[in-house]
Fold these 4 entries.
Entry 1:
Amino acid sequence: MTQTQLNVEQSNATSFDAVTENHLAKHAIQVHKFGGSSLASSQCINRVLEIIKSHCQINDIIVVSANGDTTDHLFSLYQLAQEQLQASLEEQDPRPLEAAVAALSKQQQALITELLNANNAKQLIHSLAADIEQLKAWLTGDLSAHHNNILAFGELWSARLLSALLNEKLCPSNSIDARDFLVIDNEVDCLVDTATSAAQLRQHRQFGKLAVITGYISKDERGHTCTLGRNGSDYSATIVASLVDARNVTLWTDVDGIYSADPRIVPSARKLHRLPNGVAKELGRLGNPVLHAKTLLPLINPLTEHHTHLHVASSFDAQVAGTEIGKFGQIAKQELSVTYLNDLLLAHSESFIGEAANKVRAEFAPICVDDKQGFVVITQAQQKALSQWLASHDTEVKFNPVSIIATVGHKVAERGDIKARFKRSLRSVKPLHLVNSDNSHSVIAILSEPCTPEILNNVHHDMTKDARHIGLVVAGLGNIGQRFLELLPSQLAKVEALENTHLVGLLSSKKALINNDGIDVNQALSLFEQDSQGYDNQQLLSWLSHHPYDELIVVDITPSEDFSLLYEQFFQQGIHVIGANKWAASSSTAHYNNLIQQAERHHSIWLGNTTVGAGLPINFAIDDLRHSGDEINQIAGIFSGTLSWLFETYDGSTSFSSLMLDALQQGITEPDPREDLSGRDVQRKLLILARKAGFELSLDDIDCQNLVPEHLQALDTQAFLARADELDEFFADQLARANADNACIRYVARLQATPQDDSANGLKLTAKVSLEVLAKTDAFANLTPCDNIFQISSRWYQDNPLIIRGPGAGRDVTAGGLHSDLVNICQQLASKQNQVKIKGIN
Ligand SMILES: Nc1ncnc2c1ncn2[C@@H]1O[C@H](COP(=O)(O)OP(=O)(O)O)[C@@H](O)[C@H]1O
Ligand SMILES: N[C@@H](CC(=O)OP(=O)(O)O)C(=O)O
C-alpha cells in the first residue's frame, strides 16, 4: 500500500486557521499515541486501525502503550515474585505466580489470534512464547536487576501486534523498540540525549513503512532499560515528536478530551476544549492520568522554536473534537478544573523553611511546598529518599498521611475571587492548609482524610457551575446585522444570562473573521474590515465542527437561501441557530420537518422570532398557546410593514405608483418593490406562523394574490420602475369601489382551520394572502403606517381574539428581537445539565 492510500487529513482538532494554511504542511509528520485503554481488546485495536487509516500518512509515527492493564499485570507479577523471594522455604508457593504468568500469556495469545491470520498469528505466538520463558526466568532469578525489563514487555508486545496487524491489513509497517534509540541519561530528571536518540531513530525508521514505537520505555547511556514512569507513553510520544520535528501529537485515549474533573467520578464534568500549556502542565503534575507530568516539556524546541501542537482525542469516537493544548487567549484562560490525589504524605521539617526549601524543590519536585510554615507534600514513594536526604542534613521530619484536592486554571492563585470560592466550597471538609502552587496555576487544599467522590463532585460543582462558555457567530452584516452588533457590547455588559457569551465569528457572504479567543465587541466591524478573509462553506463547517465552546450559536441575519441550507449541518453538530432569515422556516415540508427533527435529535435550539413581525412576540405567543394546551384555529393580520404603509397611506390623493416610488426612496420597500407587491413575503410569513401553530402545510397551500400584473412581472427592476404608473388604474379602481361602501383596502393574510364534517379529528385548512376590502372600523384598518397586526383565535381566545400589534419592521426592533432570542437561548442553555457521554467509559 502506498502513502496516498492512507487518508491524508489534518489532526481532528483542526483549527480554522489550519484549514486555510499552506497545504504543504499536510506532509509534516504527525505522532499518534494510543494509550492502553485504546488498545485493550481486539475490538479496540480494530478501531485504532480505522483511525490510522483515516488520520495517518505513511511517514507518521505511532507510539503505543501496553494493551489495557498489562503494565499493572506485570507490576503485580513482580510483586508476587518479590513476595516469593522474601518468603521462608515453607511459605513458598510458586503456583500463584505461575498462574498469573499463564493468565497474562493467555490474554496476549487471545489478542493475537483474534486479530491476525493464522500464519501471522503463529509467528507472533512463537515470539511471545520466547518472551514468556524469559519473563519466567527473570521473575525467578535476579529479580530486582530486571524490574524495568519485566515492565517493558507490555509495550513490546503491543507494538509488535499492532505493526503485524498493519502489515496484514493496511500498510507496510515496522515495530521499533524505543530502547534501540531513545537514550535517557538520568532516569530521575528524564534528560533525553537528543542527538544520539534522533540519529538512532533515523536509522530504525524504514522508508515507506509506518513506524510503531513502544511508549513508556527507553535505555540509559549504558544500554539498560528505563521506564518513563506510569502513563509515560505520553511523554514518549512528545519526545519522539521533538526528535523528528513533528507538527502534531495526538494522544488517543478513551475519553474525548481533558475534562474539568475525572469524568468517571464527576458525571457533570465539562470538556475543556482548549487548555493553555501552563495549565496542562500543572494538571499533569497533579496526577491527571491523561497527561503525564512531563508530556509538555519536549513540545517547544528552544533552539529552533519549532512548536508541536498537542491534542487529546478519543479513539472510541474519532470524529469528536478533543482538547487542544497550546497558547490561547483570555477565554481559554478562564477555564477551571478540579483534580485530586490520594495516598500522599505531608512532611514537616525546618529544612523546608525559607531559602532552604529551594533545595527540596530542586531535589524532589514536591506536589506543594510552604516555605513559611515549613512543610511539603510528597508521594509515598518519595518518603524513603526524602528521609535519607534530610538525615544527611541532620534535620528531623514528621510525616502524616494526607490527600489533596486542587483547583487548577491559568494563574488561579492570583485570583482572589476564585480562591475565596474554593475556600467556601471546602467549608465542610476543613482542609489542613491551602497552598498556592509555585507557578500559580493551582490552589491546593491539603486534606487529612482521602478525597472522596462526594467531595470531588461538590467542589467541582461549586467551582464550575456557571462556567459554560458560549460562542456567538453573526452571519450577515447588513443594516440589521450592524445594529445587532452595535447593541451587543451593552447587552453583554448588562444581561446576566450573557455573562459567558463571546463573539467569535463574523461572516459576510464572502468573508469571515473567526477568532477562538474572541473578537472585541467594541470594534467588531472595524476588525472585520481589517482582518476578515475569503471563505467557503466547507471551511466554515470545518471550523464550526471543531469550535472550542460548550455551545455555539449562529445568528443568521442574512437573506440568503444558500446560508439557510447549512442549518441541517449546524444542527447535526449541536449548534444553535437564531434565524431572522425566512428561508428555512418556510422551505418545503420535507426539508422543514427534517430540520426540526435534526435540531431535536442533537439538542439544538432554533429560534426565529424575528422572521415574522420583527421584534413583536408573535412566534412566542403562538408557541406558548400551543405548548400550554390551547388549539389555534385562526391566524390573520397584516404581516408586511411595506404593504401596511402603502395601503394605510394610499387615499387616492396621489397615485399608487408615486406613493410606491416615494416608499422606495425612504427604504420602506425592497430595492425591487415587486418583492413586496408579489405577496410572497406575506405568504412565507403566514406559512411560518401556521407551522408554529402546529399545522402541516407548504407554501403552495397558501393562495397568494400577486399585486403586480403579469405583463410587469418579468421586467428588470429599472424597466418596471419606469412603467410603474401601469399599476395605478387597478389600485384606483379598487380604492374607489371600497370608498363607495365606506370601506378600505388592505393586504391581509388569513389562515382558518375548520373541522371537517366527515371526520371527527380532521381539519380543513384554508389559507390565503390577498387584497381585501375591510370596513373602516376593522381592527386591521387603523394601523400606524408600517405597523403589523396579528390576530389569533383559539379555543381560549374564541369570541375575543388575541391581538398583537406594533412595528413589524425596522432596524432597532428587529435587532432588539434578535437580542431577545439570544438571551432566551442563553437562559435555556444555562439550565442545561451537562452530562458526560463518553463511549469509552460509559
Ligand atoms: N480531568 C480528566 N479529564 C479526562 N479524563 C480524566 C480526567 N481525570 C481522569 N481521567 C480519566 O483518565 C482516563 C484516561 O487515562 P489513561 O488510563 O492514562 O488513558 P490511556 O490508557 O489512553 O493512556 C480516562 O478514562 C478518564 O476517565
Ligand atoms: N503502560 C504504561 C505506560 C502508559 O503510558 O500507559 P497509558 O498510556 O495506558 O497510560 C502504564 O500503564 O503506565
Entry 2:
Amino acid sequence: MIEAHEVRKQFGAVQALGGVGFTARDGHITALLGPNGAGKTTLLRTLVGMLKRDHGSIAIDGVDPEREPLRVRANIGFLTDQFGLYERLSTREYLTYFGELNGMDGAALRRRIDEVSEMLAMGDILERRSKGFSQGQRIKVALARALLHRPRHLLLDEPTRGLDVMSTRAVRQALARLRDEGCCVVMATHVMQEVSHLCDDVIVIAKGHTVAQGSPRALCERTGIANLEDAFVSLVGTDEGIAA
Ligand SMILES: Nc1ncnc2c1ncn2[C@@H]1O[C@H](COP(=O)(O)OP(=O)(O)OP(=O)(O)O)[C@@H](O)[C@H]1O
C-alpha cells in the first residue's frame, strides 16, 4: 500500500506539487490522471525517493522512501519517462544485468526473463541489441526491467505510450494479472479508455493538487456526468481554476 499526505515539491519558482494526498491499495490498479504539467511525473519520482519532497509524508508499506530508500526500492518496479537502456547490450543481457543487481541469478533468472518476455510479447527483441529500438520496443525493455524482480509495488509513467495495439493489450493483460496477484499498481496515463477498462481507482491531479479520488464510476456519479472523460474535464476545471 502507498500512502501520501500533503506532499509538496517546488522547483525554483514552480510549485510542481502543492499538496497531494492519496492512498493506493494492494490488489488495485490506481490511475494518476491529470493534464500536462499537473505533477504526475514529479509525484512518481517523489514516491520512489528519486526526488526529495519539501513537505508532507509518504509511506510505502509503512516505510518512508527518503529514510530507507534501498528497502523501499527493493519492493518497487519503476517505469520512468527516461528508459536508461544500454545500446550495446541485447535485451537479455540488459535484463540479466539488472536481475543480478537485484540478487537474482542462474536458471531462475533466465526463466524469469523468459516469463517477462512472454508477458510483454517481446520475444522478437530479446536477443537484439537495443541500439535502433523503436519507442515501443524501448518501453517494453524498460517495463520488463521494472517487473523482473517481482516487486510488490509498480509505479509506471505512461506504460502504454507508443505501443501498438497488440503490445498495449499484452501490457494491460500483464498489469491485470499483477493486480490479481495482489500488486499495488499506480500508473500515470492520458488514455481514458485504459482508465475506464483497467483501473479500479483514479486519482485526479491538477496544478499539483489532488482534486478527487475514487473509482471511475464514483467520479462519474460525483460529477453527475456519465462519461469519464467529461467527468475528468469537469473535475480539473477550466482555465479559470480548479472546480470544487
Ligand atoms: N526538474 C524540474 N525543474 C523545473 N521544473 C520542473 C522540473 N520537473 C518538473 N517541473 C515542472 O513541474 C510541473 C509538473 O511537471 P510534471 O512533469 O510532474 O507534470 P506531468 O503531470 O507529469 O506532465 P505531463 O502529463 O506533461 O507528462 C511542470 O510545470 C514542470 O515544468
Entry 3:
Amino acid sequence: MMTRESFGIVDVAAAVIMQPDGRFLLTCRPEGKPYAGYWEFPGGKIEPGESPLHALDRELQEELGIQILHAEPWITRNFTYSHATVCLHFFRVIRWQGMPQAREHQQLAWQRPDQVTVSPMLPANAPVLRALILPPVYAITRATELGVPAALQQIELALQHGVRLIQIREKTMEKDVLQAFAEKIISLAHGTGAYVLRNSDTILPDTCGTDGIHLTAPQLMALSSRPTSGDNWCGASCHNSEELYQASLIGVDFVVLGPVLQTSSHADATPMGWRKFADLIRDYPLPVYALGGMEPDDQAIARELGAHGVAMIRGTSRL
Ligand SMILES: Nc1nc2c([nH]c(=O)n2[C@H]2C[C@H](O)[C@@H](COP(=O)(O)OP(=O)(O)OP(=O)(O)O)O2)c(=O)[nH]1
C-alpha cells in the first residue's frame, strides 16, 4: 500500500504547550537525532494508524512525562529538509497533567512569543514563532457608522480589555478625518503594545505609522507576492478555499475567514456556519481568525475548530 511516507512525507505532531501567561515550552533536540542541538516544539513522528492528537499525547508522555488534558488543533505546515519533507501538525496544549521533565535528557526552556532567547531554531519553525505573537482577538473599527468619538471610546475600552490587534477599516471616510482618527488609534494602541493594521481599501498611506496592512479579498487575489516587508504584519480577508490558497501562496501572516455567522455589517452575505469554517481551515498553514457575528464567547468554539482566534467589529464592545 502506498503511504504518505512512501512519497517521502513524514507526518509529525508538535505541541505549543501554553501557560496562562502566554509562555510556551521549547525543547532542544538531543544528540543522535538529525539537527541535534536545534530547538523545537515538543512532539514527534505520527505512527501508522495513529491520529495526530494520539501521537502527540504519546510523544509528550515519552519526552516530558505529561498527559494532555486539553489541546486545540492550530496550524499545519509543510517543510522540506534534505532528509525528508515533514508535515507538521501543530496543536496548542492548554491543559495537561504532570510537570514537564526532560525524560530524554534534553534541555527545556519556557519562552515568550515576542522574546525567544534560545537558538538555533529548527528552520521550519520561524513562521510558527511569528504566528504565536498574534493575539487571540482582532478588533475592526467602524467609525463611519459610530462616529469618531464613539469609535475611539470603543477602541480604548477594547485595549483596556486586552485587545492587541486592530484594523482601521474606514473605506469611505474623508482623508483628513481618517488621518486624524488613525493617528489617535495608533497612539492609543502603541501605548499598550498593540498593533494597528490599515485596510488596503482605505486611503491611508503606508507611511501613516501603522504596523502593516490588511488586504481585501480582491486585492489579495490580484497580488503575486506579499506586499509588505517581513517586519510589517500582513493579513488578508478570505471567504472561500481559492482565497485561502492564494493567501498561503503569497505568504501573508494570517487570514480572516467569514462570514461564519449572520452579521448586520454584511446582512446580504450568506454565512458559512461553523462546520464549513472548520472544513475550510483543516490542515491550513496560516493562523485564521473567524469573522462574522462573533461575540467574545465564540473564542472557545473557534479555537476548538482550529482557528487562532476571532475577529470582531461589533463584538468588541462586549469584551
Ligand atoms: N518535534 C518537532 N519536530 C519538528 C519541529 N519542526 C520541525 O521541522 N520538525 C521536524 C524535525 C524532524 O525532521 C521531524 C520530527 O522527527 P523526530 O525525529 O524528531 O521524531 P521522533 O521524536 O518521533 O524521533 P524518532 O523516534 O524517529 O527518532 O519534524 C518541531 O517544532 N517539533
Entry 4:
Amino acid sequence: MPTMKLKQRVVIFGLLIVGGILLVTTGVINSHLVWSNSEKEDARRLISSGHHIAFPRKNLDESNYTSDTQNSPEAQKQLNNVDTAYKVDAGVPAQPAAEPLRVNPIKLRPTKQYERNLYPLPKPVSLNFNLEDMLSERPQLKPHRKYKRRKAGHEGDLMLYEEKPGIKLTSWELFHNHINEYGLYRKDDPNVNNLIKDLQTKRIIGTEQKSGGTQLKLIMEFSNDGEALFKPMRFQRDVETDYNHYYFSDYERHYAEIAAFYLDRVFDFRRIPPTIGRTVNMTYDIKRLANRKLAKTFFFSPSNNVCFHGSCSYYCDSNHAVCGYPDLLEGSFAAFLPPDKLADRETWRHPWRRSYSRRRKAAWETDDTYCEGVRNRTPYVNSRQLLDLMDMAVFDFIQGNLDRHHYETMDPYGNETFPLHLDNGRGFGKTWKDEIDILAPIYQCCLMRYSTLLKLIDFEKGPPLSQVFRKAMERDLAYPILPEKHFPAIDRRVTIILNTVNKCIQQKGFKEVVIDDKL
Ligand SMILES: Nc1ncnc2c1ncn2[C@@H]1O[C@H](COP(=O)(O)OP(=O)(O)OP(=O)(O)O)[C@@H](O)[C@H]1O
Ligand SMILES: [Mn+2]
C-alpha cells in the first residue's frame, strides 16, 4: 500500500464503494423475488386450512433480469468430492450442506392432515371402460431387431437375454419390444434392471451430438448396439436455480433427469425411459469417438481440466462449456426410444404451457375458466389425455419443473395412450419455493385420476414419498442424486396437492372431481 500511487488508491477506493452499492441493491432485488414473512405466514395459514395458494405474481421488468452468463460453470470440483458431499451414512440422513438460502424452510405440513374428507374415499365415477379391451392390450410395437449384429470385435459384449425359447435379444431390443399403449415398460418387467445395468456398464463405442434443442446433449452408442441420450453435469448438485433466472434461462441439471426417472417409477407412471447416472472419461469416451466438428470444441480450462462445448442454438460456447475433473464427467444416460420408423412420435403443445416471455402471460394465467375450453377440444374431450395432464401436473409440481412446453405420445397407439415425460432437466431447481402455478390444470379443471389420488394418499400416510423415492435411487451409480434438502420439499408438495384436490372436492363433490379410468 505505501508504495501505491495516489491514483491507484483512488481507483481501488472507488471500486470498493461501487461493489458495496451493488451488494446492497442485489439484496433489495432478491428480497422482491422471494417470499416476504407475511407471504410465508399467509401460505402457511392457507395450506393448513386446505386452500390452494394464489401467490402474488411479481412484476418483473428488464431491470431485475440477469443474463445467463452469471451462472457460467466454474471449475468443477473433484467428482469424488461431489459424490461424497451428501453421502447418507447407514440410513442416517446427511445434514444438508450450508445453503445460500434467503428464506427459512417452511413447514407446511398441516397438523391434522387426516381430517380431510378424502378418508375414507367414496366410490369414484368410472369412465365407460371395457375391461375386455383392457385385458387384451393392443399389440405391442412390431417385434424387431434394431440392427444387424454388425460390430465386428464387439460380439463378446453383446449380452443377450432370452425373450422366449430360442429368441434372444439385447436389453434395448427388449425395451422397445415391451413398450405398449399403457407405458414404456410393464410394472415388473425384469428387463428394466438389465437395461439399467447395461446403461451403467456397457462400453461406449460411438458418440455424436444430438441436433436440435437449446442445450448440449450427445447420443452415446454402446458396445451392445444400444443407444442413450447423454446430458452432461454442468455444476454441482447443490446449486439451485438462480433467483433472478426465469425457467427458460435456467440450465438443465443432469441429476434432475435421473431423479425424474426414479420419481416416475415410484409413481408407477412408466412414462420416462430408464435414465441413470454414469461417469465417463471425456477424452476416451467422447473426444476419441467424436467427429471433427465436435472434437474441435474441446479445450483445456485455466485449471487444466478438459472442457468442451459442442454446437447448439443457445448454450454452446466457451462461456457455457462443460468441464470434467480433470477429464472425468458425470452425466445422465437415458435409454433411447425406438427409432421413428418403428414408432414415430406425435408432439402435443401443452395447453398449460408457460408464455416463455418475461412480459406476456399465458391465457390460463388470466382466465380461471380456461379449462372449459381444453375439456371440450380434441384430444382432451372424453379422453384419458386430460387425466394424464393432471398426472403431469402432479409429477411436475413435485419436481418444480416449469418447463413443460410440449409432450409426446407414441404414434402407433393413436390418441388414447400415455404421454411421455421427456426433458426433465429443469426440475429440482428450487427447494425453497413451491411453484403452485404448476397445479393450474388441477385447480382449474378440478380433476384427478383415482389411482393417482390413491398413490398420493398412500405417500402422505406413509412411508412418505421422500423415503420411497430415496430408496429407489440408492442403487444408482450417481447416488446420492439429490441433496437432502429436496426431500422435505417433496413431502410438503404431496400435502399441497392433496389439499388442492380436497378443496375441489369440497366445492364440486367427489364424483365430479375424482375419475376412475382404471389406469
Ligand atoms: N430417451 C430418448 N430417446 C429418443 N429421443 C429422445 C429421448 N429423450 C429425448 N428425446 C428427443 O430429443 C429431443 C430433445 O430432448 P430434450 O427435450 O430432453 O432436450 P432439450 O435440449 O431440453 O430440448 P429443448 O431445448 O427443445 O427443450 C426431444 O424432443 C425428444 O424428441
Ligand atoms: Mn428442454
